[in-house]
């Protein structure tokens, strides 16, 4: 996608009434990363090719008609003279500075953009370090280009360059984030959590938080009070929201969740491991509680029981910390139960116009005479007290497709939520945390339905494709191993199926009536005539062959496949899952008696990993076998009421000390 269109979509997204379709901070960062990588690539190519003019490079775009201008002699003289060594160094130095800025914004997105660029950019950091060994930007860039941090290269990846950068620039949290990610690859999750905690402190102290300006408040509060179209706000780069704090919260929550799962095995009693079944239930059917120390165990097993109890407390403590960070992460995004459908249609129309070349597509006048709608932070949906004005979920048309008839008129409102690439994984991780903190089954069921409600609404159109979610894979495995202990009313794939698009309920059926059978059906019929078999048999053979090929390709790209045995298991699991999905889709379509509703653009909703992960096994074991853990939460001491003889200054001093202690723990 050209960067001009990407920037236009980012501005359209920001000027859309809340909840905005996509997190504005992510889109603004993508625009900045694309621009920085393009400019750095341009400089690197010019330095490597002795080109003085940036017009002649035309790397990833450039000025329209630049090549024709140079052909007519209207451009600059590219190869009039060789560039001096000093000028080449300065160009590479500028390139490394731009790349360092891009990596600090989002190292994953920048790595993807860099891999799609020209080859000279890969040596920029190394060539700058040859002349200036202490250049911190070049060190940071060279760390990524020399050896992209991954689990396969974790042992040979040195943390020394990152440590030097952190020492020289203690007020920047990006290098701490990178070092924490590398530590997770080295299985040092405690060290990663410490780095991320320090990075969060640095981020909150030294970086200016994004404040809502007058234009933003106008967008959020006054857009529906006036029938006049407001002027679109174009934020300056310094005023754009940042994603760093959200990244740090998500990474630290994931690290805490992993630490909780690592302590599950040490907290299980040996008797339960031998029996292979939970002994956590008492004779009356209620879960057994943690031993309180009054019943003295045997002397030879007292130490073992103590260690198991401590491990179980660690599981719950780390899970609570992870839950807190995930809640803080999802609180950055919003949900509306009654967003007017003209707002969604207006956003889609403006995006379509931008793809056709319109630089500043104007919004419709009708969207600013609508009634106000309700907006909640997503974290409010998981509060202890449920919200009262939410639409019912799941409905009968979701559990049993075709059971509910289509409405006679188009609805005037719809559910909507802000999309973020990590939202689906964070929501499923939230469920894993609730399993580990032993949330009651009734409350966990409510949270589970809420996650399904949001996942089916998450739509990254027109920028993001739905990515695979390891947490969703783990959740599906846990539900299968625990035999759906919370009693969901339908399968997880059914509950999370992408919601139908607003406005176009009869689009597919009208198209089928107009255009007749699909090309695939026509091809199957022609093949059956040539081979003398039935069309249904040929179509079934083609479908099975296609599923087999897709399963093999998917297994080849699966990082968890390491030998022939895991490869076969991956292929078989993918084929089995595809058959189950086909059967569910066939049964649903046959029962409905018509064409399915138009789905959102991301149909492949992050297919699960086919091989059971250690995290899923640990959480499932905890759900099935762990006793109820008590005493994991430390009670806060009540503050003594100041007596008449106690001064006001002493009371204020005690309150300040308690606030400081609570802040340090969080």
Can you walk me through this structure?
The longest helix has 29 residues, at 302-330. The chain has 666 residues and is mainly alpha-helical. A three-stranded antiparallel β-sheet has the order 2-1-3. The protein folds into four domains: 24-146, no CATH class; 243-280 and 306-505 and 608-634, no CATH class; 514-596, no CATH class; 637-666. It has helices at residues 3-15, 24-49, 66-71, 85-105, 107-115, 124-131, 136-146, 160-168, 174-185, 189-206, 214-221, 244-262, 270-275, 302-330, 341-355, 396-399, 423-436, 441-457, 470-481, 492-495, 507-515, 519-531, 535-556, 564-592, 614-625, 648-665; strands spanning 334-340, 376-377, 413-417.
Which keywords apply here?
Histidine kinase group protein; 55% helix; disordered C terminus; mainly alpha; 666 residues
How many structural units, i.e. domains? 4
Widest beta sheet: strand line-up = 2-1-3
Mean pLDDT across the residues is 76
Q: If you compute it from the alpha carbons, what radius of gyration comes out, rounded to the nearest whole angstrom? A: 29 Å
Report on the biggest sheet. 3 strands, antiparallel
Run of helices and strands: HHHHHHHHHHHHHHEHEHEHHHHHHHHHH
Low-confidence stretches: 59-78, 210-227, 272-287, 291-297, 504-520, 526-530, 588-610, 642-665
> Percent of residues in beta strands?
under 5%
In total, the number of strands is 3
| Helix vs. strand class | mainly alpha
Secondary structure: helix percent: 40-55%
Number of distinct helices: 26
* Shape estimate: globular
Span from first to last CA?
41 Å
Organism: Fusarium albosuccineum
Biased composition (Polar residues): 283-295
Protein name: Histidine kinase group protein
Biased composition (Basic residues): 633-642
